[in-house]
Specification:
By secondary structure, the chain is mostly helical. The protein has one domain (3-114). The protein contains two helices and no strands. It has helices spanning 3-136, 146-155. Helix 1 (3-136) crosses helix 2. This is ATP synthase subunit b. Belongs to the ATPase B chain family. It is found in: Cell membrane; Endomembrane system. Component of the F(0) channel, it forms part of the peripheral stalk, linking F(1) to F(0). The b'-subunit is a diverged and duplicated form of b found in plants and photosynthetic bacteria. It holds the Pfam family ATP-synt_B.
Length: 156
């Protein structure tokens, strides 16, 4: 055979191969590559969305932590304020209780003083009667002289 005919046969075979490849092999390969490219693009977009979601979630977490710290500090301040109020109320209650105890003690002391005065008056009246008996050298009957003894007690 002649080299030209061989070249022509090879060129026709190559053209048939190219046509067959373009018609039956190339479209499924391009479709698979397009699908793969689309999946990669979707994966990259999902990764970007995940990254943005992560950033937003971390911002929300930081905001919630800041809010929780603020609420905790407010609770601590409120607790300190309340404890101060409780201490002041306890001090006030203790003062009023102390004043009440002092007033009761003073009233009791006043009553004791009155009782002591009455007792001293009675003893003084007895001493006066005893002294009068010695001076008069005669016996004084307390029943007979009750009015006199009562007036002496009243004067004292």
């Amino acid at each position: 055979m002649d080299i030209n005919a061989t070249l022509l046969g090879q060129a026709i075979t190559f053209a048939i191969l190219v046509w067959f490849t373009m018609k039956f092999v190339w479209p499924p390969l391009t479709n698979m590559m397009d699908e793969r490219a689309k999946r990669i693009a979707d994966g990259l977009a999902a990764a970007e969305r995940g990254k943005q979601d992560l950033e937003q979630a971390s911002k929300r977490v930081e905001e919630q932590i800041r809010t929780a710290k603020q609420q905790a500090s407010e609770l601590v301040l409120a607790a300190e304020k309340r404890s101060g109020q409780i201490v002041e109320e306890a001090k006030q209650a203790a003062r009023s209780e102390g004043e009440k105890i002092i007033a009761d003690a003073r009233a009791e002391i006043g009553q004791e003083v009155l009782r002591a005065k009455e007792e001293l008056r009675g003893q003084l009246a007895d001493l006066a009667v005893a002294g009068a008996e010695k001076i008069l050298k005669r016996e004084i009957d307390p029943a007979k002289h009750a009015d006199l003894l009562a007036s002496i007690k009243a004067e004292l």
